[in-house]
Amino acid sequence: MTEFVLIHGSWHDGALWEPVATHLRDAGHTVHTPTVAGHGVGVDKAVDHADCVASIVDWMLEADLSDVVLLGHSYGGTIIARVFEEIPERIRRLVFWNAFVPAPGNSLLDEVPPHYRELFSQLAAASDDNTVSMPFPIWREAFIQDAPLELAQSTFEQLSSEPFQPFVDKLPLTRFYELLPTVGRSYINATEDTALPPGEWGWHPRMSGRLLGARLVQLPGSHEVMFTAPALLAQKIIEAGRD
Amino acid sequence: MTEFVLIHGSWHDGALWEPVATHLRDAGHTVHTPTVAGHGVGVDKAVDHADCVASIVDWMLEADLSDVVLLGHSYGGTIIARVFEEIPERIRRLVFWNAFVPAPGNSLLDEVPPHYRELFSQLAAASDDNTVSMPFPIWREAFIQDAPLELAQSTFEQLSSEPFQPFVDKLPLTRFYELLPTVGRSYINATEDTALPPGEWGWHPRMSGRLLGARLVQLPGSHEVMFTAPALLAQKIIEAGRD
Amino acid sequence: MTEFVLIHGSWHDGALWEPVATHLRDAGHTVHTPTVAGHGVGVDKAVDHADCVASIVDWMLEADLSDVVLLGHSYGGTIIARVFEEIPERIRRLVFWNAFVPAPGNSLLDEVPPHYRELFSQLAAASDDNTVSMPFPIWREAFIQDAPLELAQSTFEQLSSEPFQPFVDKLPLTRFYELLPTVGRSYINATEDTALPPGEWGWHPRMSGRLLGARLVQLPGSHEVMFTAPALLAQKIIEAGRD
């Protein structure tokens, strides 16, 4: 039995884990799916990366969780790397699922290709609250291309605007890389994930390779396999999270 | 219901799509499989790339097709890129299946590794009609390695010699790259396709990456999965071609 | 019916092929699984690479085997490359399964990333018989990450210390590369194999690409899929080994 804490990515909130969490619970595991500060519908979007991290650290301390497998999806990778810096003693294993593992000192923006950097900056500037909204064509073609159109549309309606400042903040991650050899670490890669373009800017092995011999687990599917194949993803999370 | 136009690759003709076309039709779709000029058995091989393109454009105009999903396999990628330049208003989505997406100004020969360039040139020079015949060992080991030997042999007997001039002709593709953002575009990649050697000269992400955020669909199999797994390929063509 | 000779990798011996060999025999094939000199429990570890090669060549001559499909796993790739140099006339096809195909003049150590080079050298220096013992965390996370913990542990107990000198010996391989075009050659790649880190130092296409258009066969799984999915590996060995 494993205690999982699942940290969602950009445009998502904790409630969207439900299909995956149900499969994990059915397999006998405990699952927590907190929402990161500034994420979800109808909340204050004026947060920076430190606020996002603090919201999860505070929540874990209040819930007094320990010996957890902490998983981050996409942007959530930047959160779990920082949470691990703050409370490493409570974390048994880190699991990055098509997630950012920023190089020391980099922001998330530094880790995406130039055309995404420009697009996100323009969308934030055009918003009235410094957020980035997901354009449907990108969602449908690059994030959830393995879904029928109806599922692509219904999940799109559940997304929320993403605060931009956490994309911009630089993350030293000095302690993260110091402590990394002391913790279990896994990388889950969906082989058709094109949220980052495959190749030079791809997730794997660029991000996975920074984890120093992490356990690699792969599955077919897009960046949003949590919606298109939740049972398979749950199985791979179990394989990534076990001892 | 989608209207598919499937453009075959080198050494093939339209009739060889039959197993795939049958599965697509069984799923309720309309399928056309024209043969490109200079291709097939017993036809005049003295064609250039423009002749090949014109043969498909003329055929589509005569059949008065519109709103089609136009798919190209291998060499067929050079054809659909050019057909799209000529009659973009008739095309709903381009699907490249392990197909060439030539960089602006390149010929097909410019896009293959030097040892293939040399081999094709030698074979054409040794022929009496400036064509390239497929050597069986390359067919068996690099194109259809997932088939039993019997299927490799029976399909080999259905191949025809390939006109060489269309490999040599340079393709500006100025209008193709200008119009690309306005059309749906997908790339299907068979993960064991070694018709181009994996890595620096491979199909994916080298070719797929030129399509600016195209929808990626992958399946296991060789370059000739149309013969070795036609039902699976048909399913992936549907996923690549839907809205 | 094919006659297979399977050459194990480092830390393994011939007996560990049993689950795979059983599946191959059930499919009607003949299978031999000799142990390389200096490998296994309770044997003299003072061997160099030439001793390892000679032990297999001598065994094949004594058994008077010919027309065999010779497969090497991992380190076993360096053995089959050299055995082929010595008795090419007895070999129908070479199959490298996530195996080293050393560049001309290289040792195995030259082909692994610097941190492995350093680790193996340190472990050998710290041993009393110039051998390298497999650390359990590397076995569990990088070699057999697709196994449940119990299988990772039970297989770990079957490993034996690896003689270091064969890692160090330079292999000219002049004749190997000269004769390579004359023999059937296949590369089997398990897509989650992280015994070599994916990317710049990975198995595929770095090693497979040296085989000049070898037949590529892939399967999901780790470096030790012989333990985690022996039936599937046997099926892929058959696909790799057939004409």
Automatic annotation (TrEMBL), chains A, B, C:
Protein name: Alpha/beta hydrolase
Keyword Hydrolase part of the UniProt annotation: yes
Residue ranges of every copy of the AB hydrolase-1 domain listed in the record: 4-235
MF terms in GO: hydrolase activity
Keyword terms of this UniProt record: Hydrolase
Pfam families in the record: Abhydrolase_6
Record flagged with keyword Hydrolase: yes
